Amino acid sequence: MKSTMANLWHPVKGVQICDLGEKRYLFQFFHAMDMNRVLKGSPWTFNNHLLVLYKLELGEDPLQIPLVLTHFWVQIYNIPTGFFSDNLAVQLGNFLGNFMEHDTSLLGKGNRNFMRIRVQIDIRRPLKRRKKISFGGNCSYVTFKYERLSLFCF
Questions:
Q1: In the predicted model, is pLDDT for residue 78 greater than 50?
Q2: pLDDT on residue 111
Q3: 12 in the Ramachandran plot: left (φ > 0), alpha (ψ -120 to 50) or beta?
Q4: Among 79-83, 88-92, 100-104, 145-149, which stretch is predicted with the lowest mean pLDDT?
Q5: Burial level of 33, CB count in 10 A (0-12/13-18/19+)?
Q6: What is the mean pLDDT of residues 27-34?
Q7: Cα angle vertex 78, ends 74, 81, to 5°?
Q8: Cα 14 from Cα 45, distance rounded (Å)
Q9: Helix 32-40 vs helix 2-9: angle between axes, to the nearest 10 degrees?
Q10: What pLDDT does residue 85 have?
Q11: Is the pLDDT confidence value at 44 over 60?
């Protein structure tokens, strides 16, 4: 696992990986840029198992941290025309978990008819697949597609 993840991430300044036992590993990056790139690229998997990453603060015990939250990019489909907005992105993100950000670079480009948001999700809870929304007296369902979803989550 250690060599696979190090080869996958290609950290510029390197990474040290220590097995802490209890299915926990400590990844020590030697440059903040490498660590931020790995955290931003989550979720990561190894052998179809989700790697739940957490950025330790000084003095925290890695064996005491509850590893139950992870970030996902989620695509939201079937949004009625004209209802793409920052407010809708935040509301739907908070419905799924905790809204982090949304990707505005895809809106209105080519054939893209979905919104893309990044959310922090509690992995102990079932994933949500759709939500009913009301607009102008009409109701519709938006559907969610989780990017890089491992078999663990199914």
A1: yes
A2: 57
A3: alpha
A4: 79-83
A5: exposed
A6: 95
A7: 115
A8: 20
A9: 100
A10: 87
A11: yes
Tokens 């920052």, located at residue: 86
Cα separation, 114 vs 130, whole angstroms: 13
Position 62, amino acid? P
Angstrom distances, CA of residue 127 to CA of 7, 39, 77, 100, 140: 30, 21, 16, 17, 19
The pLDDT value given to residue 91: 95
Structure tokens at 94: 């908070």
Per the listing, tokens 């097995």 go with 19
- For 84-101, letters b (16+ CB in 10 Å) and e give beeebbeebbeebbebee
What are the sequence ranges of the domains in the chain?
2-51, 69-153
Do 146 and 127 form a contact (C-beta atoms < 8 A)?
A: yes
- The first and second tokens of residue 75, run together, are 């695509």
Q: Could you tell me where the beta strands, DSSP code E, fall in the chain?
A: 15-21, 24-29, 44-46, 49-51, 69-77, 98-103, 115-122, 130-135, 138-146
Which pLDDT tens digit goes with each residue over 94-112? 999 999 999 877 655 555 6
